[in-house]
Here is the input.
Amino acid sequence: MSRGQSTQRKLKAPRGTFDVLGEESARRSALEARARALLEAAGYERIETPTFEATELFARGVGASTDIVRKEMFTFEDQAGRSLTLRPEGTAPVCRAYLEHGMHKRRQPVKLWYWSSFFRHERAQAGRYRQFWQLGAEAIGAEDPAVDAELIWLLSTLLAQLGVRGLRLRLSSLGSAQSRRAYRERLQAHLRANEASLSEDVRGRIELNPLRAFDSEHPGTRQVMQSAPRLLDELDAHDAEHFARVRELLDLAGVSYELDPTLVRGLDYYTRTVFELTSDALGAQSGVGGGGRYDGLIEQLGGPPTPGMGWAAGVERIMLAGDGEPEQPGHARVQAPAPAPLELFVALAGPRERLRGVAFALLSEARSADLSAQMDLAGRSLKGQLGLADALGARYVAIVEDTPAGGAGWRTTLKDMQGGGQREMATDAVVHAVLRSHHAL
Ligand code: AMP
Here is the structure.
């Protein structure tokens, strides 16, 4: 044997895993810093949960009928015979933490974000790994449509800022658990009536997860699905109204999306709003990120009825689909900044239904200009909103209100919480005024 040669077989990283080295590592850190800057400026706090959890959390939270729970989990027993699972997704652990730490006693919604690795025993291929990283955000404890719109705006803005090419946003609503149950039975009846034309896989899932039939690439199944009943056409009035508000807010914030009534997500817990972002720059695995509302999940985990909404995006997919350069060089804060003090709080003085859209558009505009900005998402009175602005240490508060009786539209007063001054101005002048005052400081 010559010197330096070993008789030992060389070991490799397990299938579907990878090492992060050199240049790649620097790009990932820059991406994380950009995400942190955007999310923390919008009031999301970093959370870290354990890499493994009790298996029961995912069985109950993600749903026993999902592919994830049925065949993709890395499950093992510890020395005491307890069943543990490497986390396959982030929402159930975050909800578990919300309950375990009594976060319902905090100001609602509790807004959290994470950057963590996840584990799924999937067929390894380009863009699909067995250990991968997700960047995620969750807002728990409020059902205001502005929560949905804020989260969707944040992910689509972040991906655009990160240079992800060919982005498409698809949006739908699944309705409440009750309307979904009724719909599910109608869909099952449709599938059973056409069973002979379906793929084996879909046929095997009629009982467990009929919605997944919409995802099938099988020609016969696709044919059958064309005449299948659509959930979006069957929402009850309350859910239809909620979804209309979400769309209106996205329109106001300039987010473009396609309505896709066939959109289903691979996790059982979704209710109402669901969305997915794909990139044309990716091959078969085109999903970059997605999420939705999960108003029943906390209850399913043993907590009180609590609404929630969130998303997750795949870090490796973002890297594959992006040029790695932010949209405008120099615009991105590549250095992770210290948590920014809140620069602008947008308050509503008047009917929420009328003013929410104006306030949300202003909020999104401020965030696009890299200001840290927040608005109330939990239906507080004006007094409550001003208290919240104070608690968050807001430098400026923009109070949007209806014009006096007879007038059309609204007006905005910008209050300087440090200097004490205030000035009435056009809503679209607010961001400029706050930015200008910063330069003066
Ligand atoms: P999901 O939790 O299934 O909704 O996935 C959210 C995002 O995580 C997807 O859009 C992908 O970008 C990413 N993702 C999911 N599974 C994998 C995987 N096995 N490998 C790499 N990225 C993944």
